[in-house]
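ugh ok fine here u go
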Amino acid sequence: MDHFSYKNGLLHAEDVPLNLLAKEVGTPFYVYSDATLTRHYEVFAQGFYDAGVKDLLVAFAVKANSNIAVLKTLAQLGAGADVVSGGELARALTAGIPPERIVFSGVGKTRPEIARALEVGIHMINVESVPELKMLSQVAQSMGLEAPVSLRINPDVDAKTHEKISTGKKENKFGINIDEAMEAFAIGGGLPGLKMCGVDMHIGSQLTALEPFTTATDRLLGLVASLKQEGFAITHLDLGGGLGIPYEQPQTENAKLPPSPSDYAKVIAPRIKDLDVAIAFEPGRLIAGNAGLLVASVIFEKTTAHKNFLIVDGAMNDLIRPSLYDAHHEIVPVLAADDAHLVDVVGPVCETGDIFGKDRQMPRLAEGDLIAIRSAGAYAAVMASEYNTRPLVPEVMVKAGQWSLIRRRPSFEEMIERESFASWQDENVPSN
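structure:
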């Protein structure tokens, strides 16, 4: 469920009409619903509370949506953060997420990033290799601190998702192979400045079945039991994220949807609730994905002998998922209409891959009409670029009937002034 709906034939974000936002901030722009973010967070957390898991950390995956206003909404609900860079750590702290509710993941943390994480006192560092263990030990020693360590385990489970977002198979770059985990723990336990206290996994993103989660969890729990037998005090278990969302609107009551958070909790909670360890999850897409839209204006429709192209002012640099993953996003007119015909919805960038949807049923739209691309709250604005010197688009948040600009569109001058001529170049170049 989200809070984007038609009222009198006009698409609204909560109680704010999208044509009003388009007039105020210009297109294209992203818009996020505070109510949807809140609902999705609470549904996930409540599912585990209801299933008997009490010592729970829901660490939002900042990589999904790093806007500080989005993070602030979640911080006020009690969310933690899963970060994968020094920049994401800075954003989480700026948004008010307590450091003791932050976990630091990623296969290539740098020494300065690790030092900053230890300096602010984050909850856990998810270590992904023996070389990282050794580097972390050196940094912690140099600072006179003890680093809390959770080993990220690769359980070799096929998440049955897109190959580019599968992270839990042995051929993926992530984590320590489960067969090598005991040895890695022993190495870490012998290094100064490390507190080996946790186990972590993340098998992929946009999972639409529960079986990979249960298989991976069972393998991880077998490892935890073995570690405890060897005398390791395991106090932290992080089961990652990855639960999928519906990108396509169900056409029938019997349409197949991804498992709900409560369904997920019902199969995972019985496995973990009596472990006497703190439990962490790292949902991102599940919370933010359907809490955002990308709104764009029609430039014109181009008709050829073979295709109708609806050309809009949004582009692949604004939302790259369809180009990168062949991802499906529902596309709807902001003003409801019934005169549908088949079009390819495309952007103005000079790439054949600059396409949002092929053979979509859309009404006949004219210059200036608005479309909305759904499920654009996660892995959308965060992956945007300035390709073709197109400015990063504004982001807006709504709450009931209020709206606020939470990231403005930079001017061309602001974009260019970040650069400079080389020291040997003549700055007195002609200007237009």
